[in-house]
Design a protein that fits this description.
The longest helix is centred in the N-terminal third of the chain and has 17 residues. The protein contains two helices and five strands, in the order αβαββββ. By secondary structure, the protein is an alpha+beta fold. The relative contact order is 0.25. β4 and β5 form a beta hairpin.
């Protein structure tokens, strides 16, 4: 399957391998959505809590306005789903089997007229 825009990821359960040119195209499209959103939530599906936290930290390293606290206190065994909320700074992680792997970004808006949009799954190293 050819991945040329964020919508091409919608039907996938796990993140595909992306070429450098695909990553650049998707990042431009994603950043337009992120910068137009009031805040984002991030969902990360990973094989371990360490991999999920690393992916979350890569997003915070890339975008200074996206910060989370208490990452050192997070722990879950096996495959995990991590959820971070930029607006509150809260992060939760839970064990969950049967998931794919990747990052889901949901752009949120203060106005009810704007509908939130979820993009992904993106590879765990997408923001590195």
């Amino acid at each position: 399957m050819e991945i040329n825009k964020l919508a091409d990821l919608n039907s996938l359960r796990t993140a595909p391998h992306l070429s450098s040119s695909q990553e650049k195209k998707l990042l431009i499209e994603l950043e337009t959505n992120i910068y137009n959103a009031d805040w984002i939530t991030i969902g990360i599906m990973a094989a371990s809590d360490t991999k999920a936290i690393e992916a979350l930290k890569s997003i915070s390293n890339k975008y200074s306005s996206i910060k989370f606290g208490n990452l050192d206190s997070l722990h879950a065994d096996g495959y995990v789903f991590l959820k971070g909320n930029q607006k509150t700074g809260n992060v939760f992680v839970r064990s969950e089997n049967g998931l794919g792997e990747g990052i889901l970004i949901t752009c949120q808006y203060d106005e009810d007229a704007e509908e939130s949009n979820t993009f992904g799954p993106l590879p765990l190293d997408f923001f590195s």
